[in-house]
UniProtKB/TrEMBL annotation:
<keyword id="KW-0433">Leucine-rich repeat</keyword>
<keyword id="KW-0677">Repeat</keyword>
<dbReference type="InterPro" id="IPR032675">
    <property type="entry name" value="LRR_dom_sf"/>
</dbReference>
<dbReference type="InterPro" id="IPR001611">
    <property type="entry name" value="Leu-rich_rpt"/>
</dbReference>
<protein>
    <recommendedName>
        <fullName>Leucine-rich repeat-containing N-terminal plant-type domain-containing protein</fullName>
    </recommendedName>
</protein>
<dbReference type="Pfam" id="PF00560">
    <property type="entry name" value="LRR_1"/>
</dbReference>
<dbReference type="InterPro" id="IPR052592">
    <property type="entry name" value="LRR-RLK"/>
</dbReference>
Length: 109
C-alpha cells in the first residue's frame, strides 16, 4: 500500500473489497489521522500484521478478514485498549491466539 493522505476528521477508513494487493507496511501506524475503524477485508493483502498497528490507539474496529495474511498475530494488538471488534478470519495465521487472549471483547480469528 502506498502513501495515503487523510482528512483530519476521518473516523472510518474502509478499503474493504477494493482489490488491494501487497503487504501492509509498518507505517500504517503513522497515519496523520487516527481512524476509529480500519477495514481492509476481502482484498489480496499478504504478509504479517505490522507491529505499527499498535500506534492506532483509537481503533475500536479492525477488520482484515478474507486476505492472505500469514505469520503470528502480533502481541501488540492486545495493547489496543479501545478495540471492540477484531476480525482476522479466513487468513493463514499460524501459532496460538495468545497474543489477543487478554482482550475480553468480540474477537473473530
Amino acid at each position: 500500500m502506498g502513501a495515503i493522505s487523510l482528512g483530519r476528521k476521518l473516523q472510518i477508513l474502509d478499503l474493504s473489497y477494493d482489490q488491494l494487493g501487497g503487504v501492509i507496511h509498518d507505517s500504517i501506524g503513522n497515519l496523520s489521522t487516527q481512524p476509529v475503524q480500519l477495514r481492509l477485508g476481502g482484498n489480496r493483502l499478504w504478509g504479517s500484521i505490522p507491529t505499527g498497528i499498535n500506534n492506532l490507539v483509537n481503533l475500536t474496529d479492525l477488520r482484515m478478514q478474507k486476505n492472505n495474511m500469514t505469520g503470528n498475530i502480533p502481541a501488540v494488538i492486545g495493547n489496543l485498549k479501545m478495540l471492540r471488534l477484531l476480525d482476522l478470519s479466513e487468513n493463514q495465521f499460524s501459532g496460538s491466539e495468545s497474543s489477543v487472549a487478554n482482550l475480553t471483547r468480540y474477537i473473530v480469528t
